[in-house]
């Protein structure tokens, strides 16, 4: 692959937006997501082994094809080397066919879709961890940060929302990585093998039931406390926290429950292929042996 930033870009050869923002940012994201040392993801000067590139089964039809070739080559373990190249101004009379924001978004979307870890797991874990920390600190009452800054029920509600969103992102990430492995979109590794062994519709739905029971207990406790006061005004500041926490657990359980069946839907084509590969004769033989 060529690298125009190492070889030199002559004045007027590349728009400033592409040179200082678009290309460097997208190339940095590609290196970060996929641990590729390539410094110029979008240089069009490339030499490659045609047979190996055909085996990658590249699918995209737009400008993101440049990123797909690099990413899928790296995922397949192909060796990638860079050569400094010089970019000169385009001498053609027609206007460029590149659309800055549209094509930049298509490149970014491809990178995100092919990396559930950075798309789902990392932001989800950050939201879940920070939200859970705030929930723990604020569960028993307000938290005085400095003289004129105190965190109370509003921050507690926001923290519960962070936990809900964080759990949902992690669930999406787990399902995405599971689907990417069973379909061959992404290569297998030790962590994805563990995920494939442990993640199932039954297990996810069971955990959702446990979470629902916990949320119902919290919410039921709050209703019991309210009933003990004759359903009058609640002066205890603990009760709103219990209500919000209980409802958050119930929302998380519902998200997990329906995500479990989404996982089951994604497994249907794989199970059909497995059944077709066995065949009727094999089914009869298995029944007879049994």
Q: Output the helix-strand order.
A: EHHHHEHHEEHHHH
Strand percent estimate: under 5%
Structural class: mainly alpha
State the oligomer: single chain
Largest sheet: 2 strands, parallel
Lateral strand order in the biggest sheet: 1-2
Uncertain spans: none
Rg calc: 26 Å
Count of separate structural domains: 2
Separation, N- and C-terminal Cα atoms? 58 Å
Mean pLDDT: 87
Can you count the beta strands? 4
Give a description of the structure.
The structure is a single chain. The chain is mainly alpha-helical and 290 residues long. The protein has 2 domains: 2-111, no CATH class; 115-289. Helix content is 68%, strand content 4%. The chain is built from 10 helices and 4 strands, in the order βααααβααββαααα. It has a two-stranded parallel sheet. A hairpin with a 2-residue loop joins β3 and β4. α2 (16-34) packs parallel to α5, α7 (153-182) crosses α8 (190-198) and α9 packs antiparallel against α10. The longest helix has 52 residues, at 238-289. The protein is flat.
């Amino acid at each position: 692959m060529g690298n125009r930033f190492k070889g030199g870009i002559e004045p007027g050869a590349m728009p400033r937006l592409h040179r200082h923002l678009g290309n460097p940012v997208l190339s940095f994201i590609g290196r970060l997501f996929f641990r590729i040392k390539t410094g110029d993801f979008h240089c069009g000067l490339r030499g490659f082994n045609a047979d190996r590139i055909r085996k990658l089964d590249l699918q995209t039809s737009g400008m993101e094809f440049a990123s797909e070739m690099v990413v899928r080559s790296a995922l397949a373990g192909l060796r990638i080397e860079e050569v400094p190249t010089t970019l000169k101004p385009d001498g053609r009379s027609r206007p460029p066919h590149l659309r800055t924001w549209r094509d930049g978004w298509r490149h970014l979307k491809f990178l995100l879709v092919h990396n559930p870890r950075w798309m789902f797991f990392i932001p989800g874990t950050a939201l879940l961890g920070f939200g859970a920390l705030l929930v723990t600190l604020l569960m028993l009452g307000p938290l005085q940060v400095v003289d004129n800054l105190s965190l109370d029920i509003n921050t507690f509600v926001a923290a519960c929302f962070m936990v809900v969103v964080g759990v949902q992102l992690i669930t999406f990430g787990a399902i995405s990585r599971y689907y990417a492995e069973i379909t061959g979109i992404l290569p297998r590794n030790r962590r994805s093998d563990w995920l494939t062994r442990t993640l199932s519709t039954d297990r996810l739905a069971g955990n959702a039931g446990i979470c629902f029971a916990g949320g119902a207990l919290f919410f039921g406790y709050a209703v019991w406390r309210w009933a003990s006061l004759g359903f009058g005004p609640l002066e205890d500041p603990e009760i709103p926290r219990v209500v919000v926490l209980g409802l958050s657990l119930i929302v998380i359980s519902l998200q997990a429950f329906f995500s479990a069946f989404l996982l089951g839907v994604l497994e249907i084509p794989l199970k059909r292929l497995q059944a077709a590969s066995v065949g009727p004769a094999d089914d009869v033989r298995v029944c007879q042996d049994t």
